[in-house]
Design goal:
This protein is of the alpha/beta class. 18% of the residues lie in helices and 30% in strands. The chain is built from six helices and 15 strands. It is globular and about 55 Å long. The two termini are 20 Å apart.
Length: 297
């Protein structure tokens, strides 16, 4: 089971689906093992001495003002995907979620920071051959700008992904399109962070004078703090994504803002200035301790 953090009166709990150890360049083409090794502060917390990096696909449950908000829904089970370790999974995500105290029926809000495959998978589950909403009592929130992007013929959304993870929750009448700066509670709001996709959002949590941010995919790996120019192969607008990263790290540097990297491993850290760029200082984990789920190398 994952870790939890408190931000004022808000609790945030991670539910990790899979953690991998691999070379970064499969996702960040500029991040060769040699170049990762040059980012010395990454070893040993974020990378091995050989330049391989840790990366997790996770969801985060935000508890605020009686609401249970599930931020991103990972890969899902039983789904045909082109990446071998993502294909036709049969992992224990729902059991892990329930073990952390969050039965699917207790989730009242699902927020997808964007509509890529590893952020929408558990929107649905397979029941008697049909894809049904995993969280039947939740409203599923998609940013209106994001949804508009995926309606275009050139959006790149795989039709199978749309059919198994997006359309069923639409057909069930559970989707709300929201502004990229929408308030979810008085403590939780969306933060527009475009570039990776046009309507990509991060999540801002503010309570009792404390603040945390959930990144989504504005940064996939902590090495992008040292090299914000290292973009993802899947950035729709590479220049915009880099500008968003630079602005995000600039605003967080030397503050007490807790940054929760959706794919960072470990998840939580603080941004610190490092010359003209930045480094990530790992935050202590609180709770039951971390166990890497299904570590794949």
């Amino acid at each position: 089971m994952g870790s939890s953090w408190t931000v004022g009166d808000v609790t945030i709990t991670e539910i990790a689906e899979v953690t991998s150890l691999s070379e970064a360049h499969w996702l960040l083409p500029d991040a060769s093992a040699d170049r990762v090794r040059e980012v010395g502060w990454m070893v040993p917390h974020y990378a091995t001495a050989e330049g391989k990096v840790y990366m997790t696909i996770r969801a985060l449950v935000v508890e605020s003002e009686g609401r249970r908000i599930l931020v991103d829904t990972c890969l899902g089970n039983d789904k045909r995907r082109p990446v071998e370790i993502w294909n036709m999974r049969s992992g224990p995500f729902l059991a892990d979620l329930a073990a952390a105290g969050f039965a699917p029926e207790s989730i009242d809000t699902v927020l997808c920071t964007h509509l890529h495959v590893d952020h929408v998978g558990w929107n649905t589950r397979l029941v008697d051959g049909d894809w049904v909403p995993t969280f039947p009592n939740a409203r599923y929130l998609f940013a209106d700008v994001e949804w508009a992007h995926w309606q275009r013929d050139d959006s790149g959304m795989d039709e199978e992904l749309r059919a198994d993870s997006i359309q069923p929750v639409i057909d069930a009448g559970l989707v709300d399109l929201v502004a990229t700066d929408a308030m979810l509670t008085s403590q939780v709001s969306l933060l527009p962070t475009p570039g990776h996709t046009p309507g990509h959002v991060s999540v801002l949590i503010e309570s009792a004078g404390e603040r945390a941010l959930i990144t989504g995919d504005l940064s996939h790996m902590v090495c992008q703090a040292a090299h914000p120019e290292w973009g993802s192969s899947f950035d729709v607008d590479p220049a915009g994504a880099e500008a968003t990263r630079r602005a995000f790290f600039t605003e967080r540097a030397e503050t007490d803002d807790l940054v929760l990297g959706t794919h960072w491993e470990p998840c939580a850290g603080y941004v610190r200035s490092d010359g003209d760029v930045w480094r990530i200082e790992p935050a202590d984990r609180v709770g039951s301790g971390f166990v890497a789920p299904g570590l794949v190398s």
